[in-house]
Amino acid sequence: MDLYELLVPEAIQAKQELADRTAVIQRAGELLAAAGAIEPGYASAMQRVMDELGPYCVIAPGIALLHARPEDGVLRSCLGLITLKTPVVFGHSTNDPVDLAFALGALDKQSHIRALAQLAEYLSQEGFLCGLREAATTDVLKEFIYSYSRA
């Protein structure tokens, strides 16, 4: 599965104003659930993982990759993205605050690996990060991501 296939257009939103990490996790879950990619309880599972394991999901400066286990309510492999107008503290000692929050739902341990490898490659490119952070509207953000991931 490629990144392009994993992305859920309805679960991509730009420049959201959310108060804290709980609100970010909840909103990411709501978007994926509304798209039919996860069950509504998956957001609670993502929050539980954060509460139990801490902010390990903050994988790089300003970037969180939210997720839970497949059995927590994944209906199809999926990836959403929320960019934040005002960065939010997740509690990570070096990578806070977060302004890019990806939400991943994986059906199993293998099918999404290629897409995540592509995402990791893109996230290592300053141009990609700037494009995500500079997109002022959801439509601009979606167009940027899809044109980048199809190239």
Protein model, in words:
- The chain is of the alpha/beta class.
- It has one domain: 3-Layer(aba) Sandwich (Mannitol-specific EII, Chain A), CATH 3.40.930.10.
- Helix content is 42%, strand content 24%.
- The chain is built from 6 helices and 5 strands, in the order αβααββββααα.
- It has a 5-stranded mixed beta sheet with strand order 1-4-5-3-2.
- A hairpin with a 2-residue loop joins β2 and β3.
- The longest helix has 14 residues, at 21-34.
- The chain starts with a helix and ends with a helix.
- The model has no long low-confidence stretch (mean pLDDT 94).
Task: Sum this structure up briefly.
This protein has 151 residues and is of the alpha/beta class. The chain has helices at 3-6, 21-34, 42-53, 113-123, 126-134, 138-150, and strands spanning 7-16, 58-60, 63-66, 78-88, 98-105.
What name does CATH use for the topology? Mannitol-specific EII, Chain A
- Helix proportion of residues, in percent? 40-55%
In spatial order, strands of the major sheet run: 1-4-5-3-2
Task: Please name the CATH architecture.
Answer: 3-Layer(aba) Sandwich
Let me know the number of strands: 5
Please count the helical segments: 6
Which superfamily, in CATH terms, is the homologous superfamily?
Mannitol-specific EII, Chain A
Q: How far apart lie the N and C ends?
A: 16 Å
Give the total of domains: 1
The major beta sheet can be summarized as: 5 strands, mixed
Global shape: globular
Radius of gyration: 14 Å
Structural class: alpha/beta
Could you name the ranges where pLDDT drops below 50 across 5 or more consecutive residues?
none
- Average predicted local confidence, pLDDT: 94
User: What share of residues are in beta strands?
Assistant: 15-25%
Report the top-level CATH class. Answer: Alpha Beta
